[in-house]
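PROTEIN DATA CARD
Card holder: Heme exporter protein D
Chain length: 39
Origin: Deinococcus phoenicis
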Amino acid sequence: MDKYAGYVAVVYVVTFVLLGAYLAWMWLRLRALREEDRE
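Structure generated from the sequence above:
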């Protein structure tokens, strides 16, 4: 069981990092689009 606990933890960390990076990228894109609309 402990042998897999490390893999599970790594998978969770990678998944959350990818999700956070995707959300941050989407937020930056939306902010850039709104700034373009203002000009």
